User: What shape does this take?
Amino acid sequence: MSEKIWVNAEVSDGKIAEVTFELLSKANELAEALGDGTEVEVTLLGDGLESEAGRLLEWGAKTVLLADDPALKMYSPLTYAPLLTSWATARKPVIWLFAATAVGATLGPAVAGRLKTGMAAHCVDLLLDDRKKLKALVPSFGGKVIGEILCPGHLPQMASVKPGIFVKKAPLKKHTDGKIEKEDLTQWRQKLDQSGLEPVRIERRPPKGLPLNEAEVVVCGGFGVGTDKNWKLLEELAESLGGATACTRPPVDEGWTGEYCMVGTSGQSIRPKVYLGFGISGATHHICGMNEAGVVVSVNRDEDAPIFQVSDYRVVADLNVILPLLVEAIKTKSS
Amino acid sequence: MPYNSVVCVKPVPDPKHYDRVTIDPVKKTITREGIPTVVGPADKCAIEAALQLRERFGGTVAVLSMAPLNAEEILREVLAMGADEAYLLSDRAFGGADTLATSYTLFQGIRKIEAAGNFRFDFIFCGNESADGATAQVSSQLGEWLGCPHLWNVSAFEAKDDEGSFSLKTKLENGFMEWKGRPPLVLGIARDLNKPRFISVMGIMKAKKKPLTIWGRGDLNEAEDTYLGLSGSPTQAGEIFTPDMKRSGELLSGTPEEIVGRLVTILRANGVVLKA
Ligand SMILES: Cc1cc2nc3c(=O)[nH]c(=O)nc-3n(C[C@H](O)[C@H](O)[C@H](O)COP(=O)(O)OP(=O)(O)OC[C@H]3O[C@@H](n4cnc5c(N)ncnc54)[C@H](O)[C@@H]3O)c2cc1C
Assistant: This one.
């Protein structure tokens, strides 16, 4: 019998989130490595998702297990976790990947808890060991150390991965016989008791400008940027370069910008062509979110700042001098 | 209506010094020499949330930790912040626990406190994630063991009415989700929920007299060995290594104008289209 690798789809605003396709790409790769006709299946929960489910078949899923119901419109641990658990108990996947997003990072471990199996959190890579068991690479100490996590005696072997870690790749071979299996939820709906915790509503605040994961140039600011006024200048630079602004933790704490653009262990992982950093010391927490950038340029007045060790180009200078000059230079060069 | 809370805390090496963490090349273990142990930053916000709840409605705040015996000092610090009592689960049998085994041990600790006092906790607060391992999985799994609803990434939390219902917010990518809940609830607290209070001298004095109970394997008589410690952990650790992220680091020198000129060249050379 062929084995199954599962991906739990992440849904945002009624659409499949990009991270799902990133996970699918990795799942396809792992299926190839496992061989013997290993199939990739996607678990998908939500409301009004039938047409979205079809897209998953295009990206290498053989089967989409779909629970589509108004009661599932918003995530709740009281509805999502038991449904997913019952599917896994019945169909026994060997590997199950979740997005390490706001929902996935709590739903995944909840399901793992119900199944009494292991889950590796926030993986930076997923491999198979010589016994074809999952070997997950996970960062700890803010990314300073990477450890291997194995789950030798339990199934499914579960793992969560942040958006931006894996690259979305078209599958080597597309299934022509992929199918969507829709769950009948009649019985389940009657048993549902959400009185202890009810989801009320979702409010999205779309970030301004280009999304970080789509930007080829990222201008990142740290605590050294110093003022709101400088921050505006930074945003101006990003815009004139056709890129996006990113930040470390302190600018969020200072209120110069929002958490939506924070890069690092508790923020996003990015891989732009060019990363231009200003006033960033280079704490491990931040570096592990940006070290996949193509070219790293750093401006810091402290020549010993750890960020310089992970930079291709070092500018040891006061950003109060460099930043305005650079903004000016770009303006004149492009006009 | 008074609420009884328990706050799960983890003593961690101070995250400010993580660039000093190294790996012993021979023993393949993590060396964290000279790095002080502190209460995790998110755990402090969890304690603050529990203290504010007690200030508003009355009730008690207990802290619970699974850690080596030397964590006593950290628990005194939490008591000095204002918690009423502390429990430390410490035993070799608990060592090497992954998130599932950790949450199970904490669950057993919680049930034991409840049994001793003949009550049930209303709120179980956890920091969103620990600073060291940062799996952020323990609060959700603790909720599952306890069989009560759990939320993670909680960034707002307030009483909605006097009938015991609460309005909560959890952070999402680019937004938030609003919830209505009633205890018992397990909440993973995000760092933006509050600013944890400082410890006063008064607090330190009082903390010395507060009860701190240490329990070992033998005290958790309801616990099953299959879920405890290293052998009760479905995940096992393999090799560890330090990722090599070093880059060449060419120094751009000259006058500020020259440097900026070089920067523009570098941007262009790497395919950046300059548009104002
Ligand atoms: C659990 C946990 C999770 C975390 N997660 C993240 C995360 O995801 N992302 C993240 O970024 N951080 C995270 N942090 C915080 C992280 O540890 C660091 O505190 C943070 O990255 C430091 O940001 P910074 O480099 O901007 O500031 P600082 O460390 O304060 O550095 C500022 C730098 O600016 C330079 N500077 C100052 N003025 C000037 C000037 N005029 N010109 C040039 N240079 C100047 C200084 O020399 C200094 O190097 C986390 C922390 C914890 C505890």
